[in-house]
Specification:
heterodimer; A: alpha/beta; TIM Barrel; 4-stranded antiparallel sheet; 31% helix; globular; B: alpha/beta; Elongation Factor Tu (Ef-tu), domain 3; Rossmann fold; Dihydroorotate dehydrogenase B (pyrk subunit), domain 3; 3 domains; 7-stranded antiparallel sheet; 7-stranded mixed sheet; 6 helices; 18 strands; 36% strand; binds flavin-adenine dinucleotide; binds flavin mononucleotide; binds FE2/S2 (inorganic) cluster
């Protein structure tokens, strides 16, 4: 083990060594190569990229509009548009090799068999470090069903673990009543990490036309508006599973270093960044710089040391 | 002259140089941003944060309005490191942009989308049809076409005279329409050497009345020996009708499409429009589409 450097923001999550605790959220960073087309993009500040959800078969996605702006948030209903796992594995994964960050594939499906089949294909790629199971997407029928029930979650995670030698991260749906018991069943099924937080189902109606703004009527709410919910869910799950259990990656509403610190204090070991990329493609570098400055100002040497250190009133 | 052929995209900070009213409820905004001004090519666009950065450089209140607004370049002056956009106030974001002051620093992403350059157009004559705020991006394209030796005819539509976004002037049409040898056109286009006619929904002295499709249909009666292409930008309903006319007449037609955007970079799949080959991203495969490929819903 190397000695920790001063102001070190590198972390290791589920065995994945990451430059920073910042994880680009699935669906907001494409297949890893689109956003970095901007000049001077710094991959070194990205801990890991979670790729857009892939499914077994190609999906055309929902009809437009697919995005609407809400106060301090956005509502999206992309509908998992993707060319299917075989295409993604053949054409997109090879482009990711040799880039100075880690890539995590994200899988969605409508049945356990589908998840398992996709996981099997992805497990063969050496461009991919780990798999995130999206069991919480509000935009496809069936996607949610697994995330809301502890037994199903256990069965799904066990089945994927059985075919996949790579770490398996489970992205939990935040909309459920008992996020704790689902988290516990994922741990029982040997999940390697939990992603806590996704979008929350919402709706926007155009008052002139009296029609929903989104083509799909409903969408998933993300952005700063949901951050307090993320902080709370991370804290609840961390308390429920205990400090020594598997790491949590927080998703939802982080747009600056202070937000990132907040979810880490609540118990997240890594921090997802999604919607904020729409406001600034370099957001990850800004947050990374802010985290280094935070460590210095707090006289801390390692970002991992602040995880879960919130003191309750 | 746009020189750069690089595909560079910049997410950077632009400085507001000036903001001037252009007609009613519309503004011309000038930004200084050398890297984008140098890389920009016709029909590309920029996504602009509707709220400036705070003095400390943080997004501040922009975190309430998260999405950047796509606006086409109306004029790019790479030698000055500047470019203009012309926009209409239609909602919360453009309303906020109307408060931009010289010196404001704004986060901006671009140039985005596939360019449309003169060498991509085979026809000798190009009819540019701009409905409302669909016109500015065509103004960025017109000089390229004229430099390439093409005949350019501009048909601009607006609801009423007070909504016209550019200065107008009397002009003699080089290619007259039946009964119309002289009319009122947009000065910037006329000065470039293009023919320009303006149609208004609300009739006004000196202008054509009705829809852009009326003069378009009349032009299409004429002979264009070197071939003809239509390029249209405006409200979806206008573009749909023009696509149909072009198809009926067997004329090549390209449309500049709009869609609500998230990332602007091809990552989120938000900005799609439906084509015969599935949903395509306006920010990446677009904004220019072959009219034949669009599936109207
Ligand atoms: C490639 C492209 C080029 C454009 N060029 C111009 C131009 O040169 N001049 C001009 O006036 N307008 C142009 N538009 C339209 C312009 O983007 C919208 O008018 C603007 O985004 C409205 O923002 P708002 O906050 O005022 O409206 P709101 O309705 O409050 O916006 C809510 C959300 O919807 C989005 N939105 C609303 N209307 C549109 C639309 N028509 N197209 C795309 N997104 C929309 C907004 O960006 C925002 O994210 C262009 C659009 C595209 C896609
Ligand atoms: C446009 C968009 C598309 C998304 N697509 C996916 C997806 O395909 N799979 C997934 O697991 N999450 C998806 N998400 C959810 C994000 O990964 C993230 O969990 C959520 O947006 C909350 O984080 P944020 O507030 O930082 O954006 C999407 C979010 C957005 C805004
Ligand atoms: S805006 Fe994200 S793909 Fe076009």
């Amino acid at each position: 083990m190397t000695e920790n450097k001063k102001n070190d923001i590198a972390v290791t999550i589920a065995g994945i060594e990451m430059n920073t605790p910042l994880v680009m959220a699935s669906g907001t960073f494409g297949y890893g190569f689109e956003v970095p087309r901007v000049a001077d993009f710094r991959f070194e500040d990205v801990g890991a990229v979670v790729l857009k959800s892939v499914t077994l078969k190609p999906r055309t996605g929902n009809k437009p509009h697919r995005i609407a702006e809400t106060p301090a948030g956005v509502l999206n209903s992309i509908g998992m548009q993707n060319p299917g796992v075989e295409y993604v594995a053949k054409y997109y994964f090879p482009m990711l090799k040799n880039l100075p960050t880690k890539f995590i594939a994200n899988i969605a499906g409508e049945s356990t068999d589908e998840y398992v089949e996709v996981a099997r294909i992805i497990a063969e790629s050496d461009a991919i470090e780990a798999i995130e199971l999206n069991i919480s997407c509000p935009n496809v029928k069936g996607g949610c069903a697994i995330g809301v029930n502890p037994q199903d979650a256990f069965a799904l995670v066990s089945a994927v673990k059985a075919v996949c030698g790579k770490p398996v991260i489970v992205k939990l749906t935040p909309g459920v009543t008992d996020i704790k018991s689902i988290a516990e069943s994922c741990i029982a099924a040997k999940a390697d990490a939990l992603s806590v937080g996704n979008t929350y189902t919402g709706m926007v109606i155009d008052t002139h036309t009296r029609r929903p703004v989104l083509g799909n009527n409903y969408g998933g709410l993300s952005g700063p508006a949901i951050r307090p919910l993320t902080v709370c869910n991370v804290h609840k799950v961390r308390q429920a599973i205990g400090d020594s259990a598997i790491p949590i990656i927080a998703f939802g509403g982080v747009s600056n270093a202070s937000d990132a610190v907040e979810v880490m204090l609540a118990g997240a070991s890594a921090v997802g960044v999604g919607t904020a990329v729409f406001t600034n493609a370099h957001i990850c570098s800004e947050i990374a710089d802010g985290l280094r400055a935070y460590l210095q100002s707090q006289n801390e040497t390692n970002i991992a040391d602040i995880v879960g250190t919130v003191k309750l009133n | 002259m746009k020189k750069s052929n690089s595909n560079a995209i910049f997410d950077t900070i632009a400085t507001v140089i000036a903001q001037k009213p252009s007609g009613t409820n519309a503004y011309t905004l000038t930004f200084e941003c050398p890297e984008i001004a140098e890389a920009a090519q016709p029909i590309q666009f920029v996504n602009i944060a509707p709220v400036p950065l705070t003095a400390e450089g943080s997004p501040g209140p922009a975190l309430d309005m998260l999405l950047r607004r796509p606006l086409g370049f109306s004029q790019v002056r790479p030698e000055q490191g500047r470019f203009d956009v012309i926009y209409q106030v239609v909602g919360r974001g453009t309303q906020a942009m109307a408060d931009f002051k010289p010196g404001d620093r704004v986060r901006i992403l671009g140039p985005l989308g596939m360019p449309l350059t003169a060498d991509m157009i085979k026809a000798q004559t190009v009819i540019l049809v701009g409905g409302g705020l669909g016109l500015p991006p065509l103004y960025d394209l017109a000089p390229e076409l004229i430099k390439a030796g093409k005949e350019v005819i501009v048909i601009a539509g607006a609801r009423a005279e007070n909504l016209l976004i550019m200065d107008t002037q009397q002009c003699k049409l080089k290619r007259p329409l039946p009964d119309i040898g002289e009319t009122t056109g947009f000065k910037p286009f006329v000065e470039l050497g293009a023919d320009c006619v303006i149609t208004l929904d609300t009739p006004a002295e000196g202008f054509l009345s009705g829809l852009v499709t009326e003069p378009l249909n009349k032009y299409l009666e004429q002979d264009f020996d070197g071939g003809l292409e239509i390029i249209a930008c405006g409200p979806p309903i206008m573009m749909k009708v023009i696509a149909q006319i072009a198809r009926d007449r067997g004329v090549k037609c390209r449309l500049i499409m709009e869609a609500r955007m998230g990332c602007g970079l091809g990552a989120c799949q938000a900005c799609v429009c439906k084509t015969t080959d599935g949903y395509k991203r306006v920010c990446t495969e677009g904004p220019v589409f072959d009219a034949e490929d669009i599936v109207w819903e």
